[in-house]
Amino acid sequence: LLKVDYDVCSNYGNWLYSAGIGNDPRDNRKFNMIKQGLDYDGNGDYVRLWLPELQAIKGADIHSPWAVSSAALSQAGVILGESYPHPVVTAPEWSRHINQRPQGQSPHPRGKKGPAHTPVQHRGIDFYFSRKKDA
């Protein structure tokens, strides 16, 4: 993760929150990048600014390009694993937000084929801090 702005209080607080440390009234909270993208960048304009290789992906699909149909990826000129990497990890919590439209946006058509690559779902890696340890 690369921060490109500098707001000391906000950045430090958000880094601690993302790391899962510090005071938090809710147990086992996880940062959901897909939901945040849909909530605060519903059309994907900010993502397109910093990831030009994904510029041709339509609407909110840009937040989860691995879940876009093969036809839509091909039309956008995106080849997962070549022009844009496969996801390292996907969290189960993301699935309820993938392929959803942001609030106030109209639906957009999708191809009938499934995703070009289905990443393995993990319970998470180190950013999923939990008080419970798997045995």
Automatic annotation (TrEMBL):
Entry superkingdom: Eukaryota
One of the protein's GO biological processes: photoreactive repair
Keyword vocabulary terms for this entry: FAD, Flavoprotein
Bound cofactor: record note: Binds 1 FAD per subunit.
Residues annotated for FAD binding in this entry: D5, Y6, D7
Domain Cryptochrome/DNA photolyase FAD-binding residue range list: 4-99
Residue span of region Disordered: 94-125
A Pfam family the protein falls into: FAD_binding_7
Gene3D superfamilies: DNA Cyclobutane Dipyrimidine Photolyase, subunit A, domain 3
Cofactors required: FAD
Alphabetical list of InterPro entries matching this protein: Crypto/Photolyase_FAD-like_sf, Cryptochr/Photolyase_FAD-bd, Cryptochrome/DNA_photolyase_1
GO molecular function: damaged DNA binding; deoxyribodipyrimidine photo-lyase activity; FAD binding
Family designation: Belongs to the DNA photolyase class-1 family.
PANTHER family reported in the protein's UniProt record: CRYPTOCHROME, CRYPTOCHROME DASH
Name of the protein described by the UniProt record: CRYD protein
Organism of this sequence: Turnix velox (Little buttonquail)
